[in-house]
Specification:
single chain; 11 helices; 70% helix
Length: 193
C-alpha cells in the first residue's frame, strides 16, 4: 500500500509519522465520508505508523476510501486481495479492485493488472493485454509500467520483439519518474554491459 505525500498533506499529515490524535481525527473524518482520511488511516494501520499495525483494519479503511472514490485506496484493496493481507486471497477480487483503481487514475493499479494478465492470475493469460495495461500505467506517469515495458523490449519476451531504442526510451521514462532501478538499467543498456 502506498499513498502520495499530497494525500497525506490533504489529511493533515505533512511531516513525519501521524500522531494518535491525528489518526483519531482522521477516523472521524473517514466516518463522515472523507475518502482521503480513510486512505490515511489505512496507510497508518498497514505500516503501523502512529498506531499498532493491523492488516485487517488497513483493509477495512482502504475499502471505505475506495467506496468514497479514492482510486489509490481501490488499488490498495486490490493489493490486499492479491496478497491475502487482512482478507482472504482472491485474484478475481484483486482484478476487480485494480480495475477500479486504474480507471480512477491509480497507475500502479494499472501496472498490477498488467501483471495479472502476464502471469494469468485470476484472468486468462494474455500478453497483449498485459502490455496494454503496462502502457496505460506508463502513459499516466507510473514508473513501474514504464520499467516493465523497458524490460520486455530488452528481453524480447511477452510478445514483444527486442528493440534497444524502445528499451532505452521506456527505461528513460521510468528513470525520469525517479525509479532508480530503471536509471541503472538505462545506463547498463546504454553502455552495452
Amino acid at each position: 500500500m502506498r499513498k502520495l505525500l499530497v494525500l497525506l498533506c490533504l489529511a493533515g499529515f505533512c511531516f513525519g509519522v501521524p500522531s494518535a490524535a491525528n489518526i483519531e481525527k482522521a477516523k472521524k473524518e473517514c466516518e463522515g465520508g472523507n475518502a482521503a482520511s480513510c486512505a490515511m488511516v489505512s496507510e497508518a494501520y498497514y505500516y503501523g505508523e502512529g498506531i499498532k499495525q493491523d492488516d485487517v483494519k488497513a483493509f477495512e479503511y482502504a475499502k471505505k476510501g475506495c467506496e468514497g472514490g479514492d482510486a489509490i485506496s481501490c488499488g490498495d484493496v486490490g493489493a490486499a486481495y492479491h496478497k491475502g493481507e487482512g482478507v482472504k486471497h482472491d485474484f478475481l477480487k484483486a482484478f476487480e479492485y485494480y480495475q477500479k483503481g486504474c480507471g480512477g487514475g491509480d497507475m500502479e493499479a494499472c501496472y498490477k493488472i498488467g501483471n495479472l494478465y502476464k502471469y494469468g492470475f485470476g484472468v486468462e493469460q494474455n500478453h497483449t493485454k498485459a502490455f496494454e495495461y503496462y502502457k496505460k500505467g506508463c502513459d499516466g506517469g507510473g514508473a513501474m509500467g514504464c520499467a516493465t515495458i523497458g524490460t520486455l523490449y530488452e528481453s524480447g519476451i511477452g510478445g514483444v520483439e527486442e528493440d534497444i531504442n524502445k528499451t532505452l526510451e521506456f527505461y528513460g521514462k521510468a528513470c525520469d519518474l525517479k525509479y532508480l532501478l530503471a536509471c541503472e538499467a538505462y545506463e547498463r543498456v546504454k553502455s552495452g554491459k
